[in-house]
From TrEMBL:
GO terms for cellular component: cytosol. Necessary for normal cell division and for the maintenance of normal septation. One of its GO terms (biological process) is division septum assembly. GO terms for molecular function: GTP binding; metal ion binding. This is Probable GTP-binding protein EngB. Residues 43-220 form the EngB-type G domain. The lineage of its organism: Bacteria, Pseudomonadati, Pseudomonadota, Alphaproteobacteria, Hyphomicrobiales. Belongs to the TRAFAC class TrmE-Era-EngA-EngB-Septin-like GTPase superfamily. EngB GTPase family. InterPro entries: G_ENGB_dom, GTP-bd, GTP-bd_ribosome_bio_YsxC, P-loop_NTPase. It comes from the Bacteria. Its cofactor is Mg(2+). Keywords: Cell cycle, Cell division, GTP-binding, Magnesium, Metal-binding, Nucleotide-binding, Septation.
Amino acid sequence: MTDLTPPAADAPDPAFEAGRLLFARPWGFVRGIVDMGALPGATGTEIAFAGRSNVGKSSLINALTGQSVLARTSNTPGRTQELNLFRPEGGDDLLVVDMPGYGYAKAPKAHVDAWNRLVFSYLRGRPTLRRVYVLIDARHGIKTNDDDVLDLLDKAAVSYQIVLTKADKIGTADLEALEAATAEKIRKRPAAFPEVLATSSEKGRGIPELRAAIWTLTQE
């Protein structure tokens, strides 16, 4: 006899478990590249993380994969100077790209220009890039350099989603106000995904939601 009982209203979203399993596999560093020609073949789903220097990209990648030292973290802004690629070991269904941080004023101009050329070439020329997660420090909100990157993504028609980092560093009311203000600020941007995610790599906040969101992309 068929069970017609509807699922409980508070039943867990299956995407959360699928996202957990996606990142529960062993992950490894593929390579760091400074030239588009060194990118691996465009297969499977590809996502990238962008953000100002020291916004917490490496920490977020480590939190997603549950590996504390997969992506190198540093308190020195501007240390990541190349595209760093990560894959689950033995799998080619998902490629994670940690992009160089932007907005670090003290870096030599020649280095900044070289990093920007690499990043912009990557954004414009990667057919399997499904979404860029643009990380914004919850303590500061969207700054001018962030707006410049969002303009580029809109122009290139690359889908992106705002992820607030270090959400544990501000109060609940301030965080809720920031989420609402950020959502309103990107509402009319053509390539922006409307939902804003708040995360804390240190406390684990928002990590299951982000994993689920990434898994959903792999199914589309």
